[in-house]
């Protein structure tokens, strides 16, 4: 997902009996669907895991601007240009809400940014794939935002108050992102033979990377079990992936496009589709920084940051001068 | 009273300014110095593209040849573009981008004010709607020019360089010809423009260049800079490569 393979304490979930009274009260509040707020006591592991998860999510929104930003200057109509601009602007806003939510846990946006730029903190694997044709704007909205919604809707009920509230604002905008993507896909799939070819090609390239967004199966993962006990992860990766495939397969049919999976088949018994796993070796390669665009994405972010230094410094210096002048006048 | 041909020409001038500047600003997407600036730049670009749809939409209607705003934006070549030379200048650095925005906004806001209440009801309506957005653009670009002009030694140097570099493109905004005079003469707006920018430049500790030299040829379409063709090559690529496609 936008936060993939986030490590928790790694110790496994403890029962209420094993906890001291403070932690027990904390866990009981979560079990009763209460919210944890910034000033409340929380276990160190909860705080650290959340910082990692929210930070990664925020970075994904920021880096996620790049593959779509790649087509803003080439959008084929004024309306498409405006819609894409609005969408990418939303993503920057999502980044902002999420950095603010993470800051309530005691990290600064600057620190998180430095960790992103140095490669220490990750962002979603999906944004390391290139956007090659205009149909990719359709595929990204339809599949990538679609997959993000699967994960983010349940996170509106997550236990950490600021995170849950950020998710509520974000989810309102995500459904528009998904719809505009589907709409582009529709125009392409029902368009000229060349457009249809681009649409199919985009689906071919984005299908498995979209499935990877949910992360490998975590049925056995102690990290996931702890995160679920803390309600900062609401569903297992396999559950969400299944839901995504079940929703998307009929949409592909409707578009007249073919999902690149020979094993994709409705399974009456389980009430869902059977489908092939993505290539997890590729996924781990991407996480290691070997995605098709991994180097470019980080290079881009670093260049923007370095070239913007003089602006940030000047704005601070000007604000300081103004403050000093105001003090002197008082 | 303007003829339809004059009206069309004038509407293309307004629409092309918004289109070309909106496009330039959108080139920043994801690369601004801070997240807040990314959002603000996208917002400005979005407003300008919206205004483009209105101005070029009306231009197409006046022309009555079955074209629409997209046809005007995506199917005309450099010779038929009517934007000011200022707005086709490349982004260069953030300082140039904001200085270009500031100089244009200071003209734009006075122009839209003058157009509000115009006899032509649709022109008046578009001006009124745009004025709300441009008032905000002008405020923001002025604040940024002040902050960066005054900020550090380096930022001051960069902003002065940007001002010096862009200054020769200011004069064209106030040149007027038959077409302008048929709808709204920009020449009388120069004083208000000067007052506005002088105040900001003073606060920004920047020196207004002495020279009155002005490049021209953008809004008449006689001679654009080399930059515009490259922008159009990118912007128009899809509709040109797939002329039968609907998007
Ligand atoms: Fe988002
Ligand atoms: Fe989104």
UniProtKB/TrEMBL annotation, chain A:
InterPro entries from the entry?
Aromatic_CoA_ox/epox, Ferritin-like, Ferritin-like_SF, PaaA, PaaA_PaaC
Reading the lineage from the top rank, the first entry is: Bacteria
**SUPFAM superfamilies, A to Z:** Ferritin-like
Q: What keywords appear on the UniProt entry?
A: Oxidoreductase
Instruction: Spell out the Pfam families in the cross-references.
Output: PaaA_PaaC
Q: Which terms does the record give in the GO molecular function aspect? A: phenylacetyl-CoA 1,2-epoxidase activity
**Its EC number(s):** 1.14.13.149
EC top class named in words:
oxidoreductase
The segment annotated Disordered runs over 1-20
Looking at the keywords, is NAD present? no
Q: Which PANTHER family match?
A: 1,2-PHENYLACETYL-COA EPOXIDASE, SUBUNIT A, PHENYLACETIC ACID DEGRADATION PROTEIN PAA
What is the name of the protein in this document? 1,2-phenylacetyl-CoA epoxidase subunit A
- According to its UniProt entry, this protein's organism is Pseudosulfitobacter koreensis
Gene (UniProt): paaA
Automatic annotation (TrEMBL), chain B:
Superkingdom, according to UniProt?
A: Bacteria
Annotated EC: 1.14.13.149
Question: Under which main EC class is this enzyme filed?
Answer: oxidoreductase
Gene3D superfamilies xref list? 1.20.1260.10
What Pfam family is a match, any one? PaaA_PaaC
The protein's UniProt keywords, in alphabetical order, are: Oxidoreductase
MF (Gene Ontology):
phenylacetyl-CoA 1,2-epoxidase activity
Q: Which NCBIfam families match?
A: PA_CoA_Oxy3 (TIGR02158)
What's the protein name? Phenylacetate-CoA oxygenase subunit PaaC
């Amino acid at each position: 997902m936008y936060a993939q393979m986030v490590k928790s304490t790694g110790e496994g979930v403890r029962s209420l009996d094993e906890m001291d009274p403070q932690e027990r009260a904390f866990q009981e509040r979560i079990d009763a669907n209460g919210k944890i707020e910034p000033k409340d006591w929380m276990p160190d592991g909860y705080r650290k895991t959340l910082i990692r998860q929210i930070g990664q999510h925020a970075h994904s929104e920021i880096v996620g601007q790049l593959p779509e930003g790649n087509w803003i200057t080439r959008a084929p109509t004024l309306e498409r240009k405006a819609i894409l601009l609005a969408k990418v602007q939303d993503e920057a806003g999502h980044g902002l809400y999420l950095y603010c939510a993470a800051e309530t846990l005691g990290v600064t946006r600057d620190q998180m940014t430095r960790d992103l730029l140095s490669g220490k903190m990750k962002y979603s694997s999906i944004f390391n794939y290139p956007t090659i044709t205009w149909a990719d704007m359709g595929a990204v909205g339809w599949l990538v935002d679609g997959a993000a919604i699967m994960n983010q809707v349940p996170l509106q009920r997550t236990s950490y108050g600021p995170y849950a509230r950020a998710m509520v604002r974000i989810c309102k905008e995500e459904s528009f992102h998904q719809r505009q993507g589907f709409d582009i896909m529709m125009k392409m799939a029902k368009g000229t033979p060349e457009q249809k070819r681009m649409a199919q090609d985009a689906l071919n390239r984005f299908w498995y990377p979209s499935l990877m967004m949910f992360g490998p199966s975590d049925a056995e993962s102690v990290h996931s079990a702890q995160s679920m006990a803390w309600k900062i992860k609401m569903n297992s990766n396999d559950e969400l992936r299944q839901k995504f495939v079940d929703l998307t397969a009929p949409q592909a049919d409707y578009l007249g496009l073919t999902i690149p999976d020979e094993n994709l088949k409705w399974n009456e018994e389980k009430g869902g589709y059977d489908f092939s796993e993505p290539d997890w070796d590729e996924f781990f390669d991407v996480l290691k920084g070997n995605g098709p665009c991994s180097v470019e994405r980080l290079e881009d972010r670093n260049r923007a940051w370095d070239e913007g230094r003089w602006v940030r410094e000047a704005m601070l210096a000007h604000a300081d001068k103004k403050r000093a002048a105001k003090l002197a006048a008082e | 009273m303007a003829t339809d041909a004059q009206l069309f020409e004038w509407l293309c001038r307004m629409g092309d300014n918004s289109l070309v500047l909106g496009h330039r600003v959108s080139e920043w997407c994801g690369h601004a110095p801070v997240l807040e600036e990314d959002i603000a730049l996208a917002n400005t670009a979005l407003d300008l593209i919206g205004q483009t749809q209105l101005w070029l939409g009306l231009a197409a209607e006046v022309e009555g040849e079955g074209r629409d705003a997209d046809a005007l934006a995506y199917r005309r070549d450099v010779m038929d573009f009517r934007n000011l030379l200022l707005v086709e200048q490349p982004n260069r650095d953030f300082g140039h981008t904001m200085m270009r925005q500031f100089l244009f906004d200071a003209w734009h806001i006075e122009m839209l004010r003058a157009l509000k209440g115009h006899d032509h009801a649709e022109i008046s309506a578009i001006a009124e709607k745009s004025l709300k957005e441009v008032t905000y653009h002008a405020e923001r670009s002025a604040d940024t020019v002040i902050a960066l002009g005054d900020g550090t030694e380096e930022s001051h140097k960069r902003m002065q360089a940007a001002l010096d570099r862009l200054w020769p493109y200011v004069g064209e905004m106030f040149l007027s010809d038959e077409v302008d005079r048929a709808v709204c003469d920009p020449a009388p707006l120069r004083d208000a423009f000067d007052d506005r920018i002088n105040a900001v430049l003073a606060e920004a500790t920047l020196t207004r260049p002495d020279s009155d030299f002005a490049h021209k040829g953008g809004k008449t379409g006689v001679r654009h800079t080399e930059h515009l063709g490259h922008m159009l090559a990118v912007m128009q690529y899809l509709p040109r490569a797939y002329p039968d496609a609907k998007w």
